[in-house]
Amino acid sequence: MVNFDNTAIAFQMKNDAALDRAYFLFKLISNEPLVKIGTAATNFALNAQLPVEGLIRATVFDHFCGGVSEEDCLQIIKELGSYGVQSILDYSVEGKVEENQFDLAVEKNLEILSFIKSREKIPFAVFKPTALGSSDLFFKVSEGIELNESEKNAYSRIVERYHTLCSKAKELNLKLLVDAEESWLQKAADDLCLEMMKVYNTEQPIVYNTYQMYRWDKMKDLEELFDLANQFSFFPGIKLVRGAYMEKERKRANEKGYTSPICKNKQETDINFDKGAKFILNQIEKASIFIGSHNEQSTLLVIKYMEEYNIPSDHRHIWFGQLYGMSDHISFNLAKHGYNVSKYIPYGPVKDVMPYLIRRAEENTSVAGQTNRELELIKRERSRRKLL
Ligand SMILES: Cc1cc2nc3c(=O)[nH]c(=O)nc-3n(C[C@H](O)[C@H](O)[C@H](O)COP(=O)(O)OP(=O)(O)OC[C@H]3O[C@@H](n4cnc5c(N)ncnc54)[C@H](O)[C@@H]3O)c2cc1C
User: Fold this and answer.
1) Smallest Cα–Cα separation from 23: which of 388, 377, 387, 386?
2) Closest atom of ligand 1 relative to the 326 alpha carbon
3) 3-class SS at 215?
4) Residue 365, pLDDT score
5) Residue 165 in contact with residue 175, Cβ under 8 Å?
6) What does DSSP say about strands 288-292 and 341-347: parallel, antiparallel, or unpaired?
7) What confidence score (pLDDT) does residue 356 get?
């Protein structure tokens, strides 16, 4: 029986000092005013080129990131792997806007694909749609706004970039996750992923699109995806998440006066998420699911469905994923019981991963219960060790 309360397994990779550091860090980011001031001060210091990188590295960076380069992450990947937890290298450099930066992103991702091919315990690669093209274009195409000639050319370059990465993944027999973005960019990203699945997922799931189940329309999209998969004979790859941009989504819908695409409340999101998981698990021989979640109940429910449907815990089409630095009690306990688990390991130059780190700090401040849960688990493990 998987038991997320087993802190000895959850924190087996952390020595006492690392556990103390994690406690200190979560204590800091549980303090909302401090996170606000810290974020502003860090942005200011980095822009003013003050020497704060060391401090960032010693605190949030080292907790939530694997390092500055792929090589930097290797030690962590090896350690995680020794406990049965696999890794996904997530090059977390965001917000680039120039064409040459999109080409560089493709090169970087090709490099990562080759890097992971020659190593063990890194089953997936991942990219964000807007790393390959401008948000403006994703927006226009999503909204059906007509493109001018130069925009059409730029968009066909995005399509080409998708093909370059997906065909490489297929050639190397690696799986490729495509992250989801804000709803006003997502339709174009969904259409692109569908095209990729039709081409590259004919023999097995290679390309995985992300379905954000905090959107009330996503269950219908999932059903459509499976209809299309039957029609065009491909294996749908699905990364199932709740969704990261709720506040932004609601604010924009409110300002522009359209119905928010987000479920009315958390309970509806939870129902939608669990329904999506069940729907996919029911047809797991012809699809693959990557469950990106820190939610204990949903994870346990997936395990329950797997047992009900007689699906082995290490079924090659079922993956669980958490972010590095969070919810180790889920990842390590799942791995201990033979489930396929991977941690997203963000990495990149300190200044460039700051938006990612700020999101993590804010999320841990705002997502009710998560920081307290981490603190509680660490406290329990510290007491357990003292009694030994
Ligand atoms: C490996 C991994 C990959 C991810 N990739 C992506 C990605 O590509 N794109 C993306 O957008 N997100 C991504 N996420 C983030 C994810 O979408 C969630 O924001 C995050 O994991 C928190 O949800 P949860 O399932 O872990 O747990 P929970 O803490 O149970 O759920 C919190 C989530 O529930 C939803 N929610 C909270 N309150 C309400 C409310 N009042 N009404 C409606 N819904 C509500 C929100 O989505 C919120 O983030 C990823 C997460 C992981 C672990």
Assistant:
1) 377
2) 53
3) strand
4) 64
5) no
6) unpaired
7) 83
pLDDT score, position 368: 56
**Mutation probe of ligand 1 site: the residue of 241, 324, 329 with most atoms within 8 A of C-beta:** 241
Please tell me the predicted confidence (pLDDT) of residue 268: 98
Confidence at residue 43, expressed as pLDDT on a 0 to 100 scale: 78
> pLDDT tens-digit profile of 364-377?
665 556 888 999 99
Q: Are strands 85-91 and 124-127 parallel, antiparallel or unpaired?
A: parallel
In this structure, the residue with its CA closest to atom 27 of ligand 1 is 295
**Domain ranges within the chain, ordered by starting residue:** 67-355
| DSSP annotation string for 150-181 | HHHHHHHHHHHHHHHHHHHHHHHT-EEEE---
Q: Ligand 1 pocket, 179 CB below 6 A?
A: yes
What is the structure's pLDDT at 28? 83
CATH code given to domain 67-355: 3.20.20.220
Provide the 3-class DSSP secondary structure of residue 20. helix
Residue 121's Cβ-count burial label (10 Å; 0-12, 13-18, 19+) is middle
Structure tokens at 295: 């939610």
Amino acid letter for position 100: N
* Ranges of the chain with pLDDT below 50: none
